[in-house]
UniProtKB/TrEMBL annotation:
Coiled coil: none annotated. Keywords: Nucleus, Protein transport, Ribosome biogenesis, Transport. This is Protein SDA1. Residues 626-644 have a biased composition (Polar residues). It comes from Rhizodiscina lignyota. The lineage of its organism: Eukaryota, Fungi, Dikarya, Ascomycota, Pezizomycotina.
Amino acid sequence: MGKRKLGALEKVEADLANLQHKIRRDPPSYKDDFDRQYEQYAAFYAILAQEPSSVDDSGIVSVRELIDFIAHVADCYPTQTKDFPNDLISLLEAHHEDLEPELREKVVVSLVLMRNKDIIDSPTLLNTLFPILVSTSSKSLRTLLYQKVLSDLRSSNAKSTNHRLNRTMQTVLFNLLTSDRTSSKGLWAVKITRELWKRQIWTDAKAVEIMKEAALAENEKIISGGVRFFLGGDKEREEAAEGSSDEEDEIDMDKLRHQAGINKKSGKRDKELKKAAATAKKKDKKKNAPHPLNFSALHLLHDPQGFAESLFSRHLQNAKSKLNLEQKLLVLQLVSRLVGLHQLTITSLYSYFLKYLTPRQPSVTTFLACLAQATHTFVPPDTLQPLVQKIANEFVSEAAAAEVASAGLNAIREICARQPLAMDETLLQDLVMYRKSKDKGVVMAARGLLSLYRNVGAEMLHRRDRGKEAALGLRDGTAGSARFGEIQVGQIEGIELLEAWKEEERRRKREEKGLGSDEDDVEGEEEDEETGWKNWDVEEDDSDDSGGWIDVESDGEDIEISDDEDDKPPAKKAKLDQADGKDDNSENKDPAAAAEEMEAKISKLATTKILTPADFAKLQELRTNANITSSLSSGRKTQRQKSQVIAEGRHHEDPLTAAEIEGLASLSHKATKAEKIAAAKGDRDEKHQSTTARRKEKKRSEGKSSTNKEKERQKNFLMTLGKAKRKGKRSLGDVRKALRGHVERGKRGGKRGN
């Protein structure tokens, strides 16, 4: 008996992809065909719901194809497929461990497809996938579900933030962590929260509370994940934002327009040019958009004091803690970071460091960095002095290795930079003497300590070590150590530079107009002020129009407040012989008089004038110039001196690492010849090229063609022989025609005339 031939209709029914295509084009015409396929699916589903393992391989293939087919066309027949999503959900929840892997993956993908078609909503999908993600033992299924959960949360927050969905998901993750602190299931809450924080989808305090509970868990992996989030989550977010901006290729519109003018005109090329222009405009708009204000996770904590105390008592002080040394160091870094950033008080923290401050302790530089990081202005000096003394005794001595002494001096300097009162006068003078050591790292560490106390406590140094500026400051009463708990008056950094610059500009303009030093130029100041607020780019601005007097009544007395700085002549520079002629005991002048002098020297520009945006721009410029001048004031600085300047300018809220404590100890290591050559070369990895070669390479990178002469030079020599012979046989008339044709083509704009 021969093989029966299939009819055209049967071929359409057998080919589900073809049927799917036809249904998408005309759903009513193929309703009966869809009903037949759906009946087959219903029969297979009944068998799978009873016993998933009873279906053979061919049946499983058929079920996979039918599920995929129905999921793609379910939106065309909403009435017939209203129970289809619930069938897949119940099948996946009940038999996800027993289903064949490819069939299980097809069910998950079909649910996600129906979510993208808005047949089911996002909460339904997440409530189905997340419990299976937490409970399943299949690694491949966990990977698939994790990717689908993240992608659904990202797509739900793509156009605008879906606050309702985010709150629901965050509550689920929070409850997962708090319900059982010993279970490892909470690791998925850590992974999801950290990934969404990195992608700037979750940036609120609720996400930080989830990671806070993770850090307080009792499972080692969850604790490490939560602690690492607080220590490095913000840096990951910044790197991800920079990476996404770098991945976007810049579109050169000039190059595209040039190509469109040369190439043959067509509708396709015109559409491509318009599309590229729209993309470039969109990227430019995104680039110029205001930067979102993302707070650090450490600043979004609700109760940093309670969090730091809980971390310290549960994971560090608790003898039953199962954390190893590396994990304990992570927790200690977080605790010290919280204490230093929020200026918390945990008295037992500092005594905890005592047993670890020995050179033989593994990772001792990390302990030193944590101790320095946990120091702030409100830590009692009596608490820190034993620690500083122990570091000096254990690390800084003639018998200690150079790396050990350098690390000890750097640690002491970082502690004293945050709390200068932790240093004893005798100990300071002893440590400063190490600047005469033979090791470069120890010398630079001791010099760093010396320069610190020249600024914050010059009276603790010997007279010969104070330096010129500190000695003059002590004589004037402007320099001195701060008292415990004293807070500096808030002031704009570098405002005195702007005030001096304004005074200089005002004096120069008076001289140009022929006015005296004491005469007012009110009209010029008013004109400058109006221009400053109109154009935002002036270099001078004075906010007071009248320059007159304002009567203010206070406690029955009339007080006159002048708002014009020109009434007082500019302060003259004190001469050195006058400073030398002062009494040597002026260091011990009355504290009240010294306080009045300090208050008089504080700039009042910010409190008496309204600074324009141009003023702030000029202030930034003056600060930059001042930093450059101070960095280069002593001539050509070495790499060690540059690193010292950077260390001094570091903000007190920045994290402190073990590498910064080790500092310049690597300088004591004598470099090999290969290391010297590598340091000399630096980043010069490119090969030497002539100017012509670099020009050609630049033209090729820009997509420009080479000239005809360059093409002839690159042509094979045997191919050019015939042309060379013909050129030699040409008559004068032929040469004249060729030259005339060349001139005419040049006038037309080339052979194409464009």
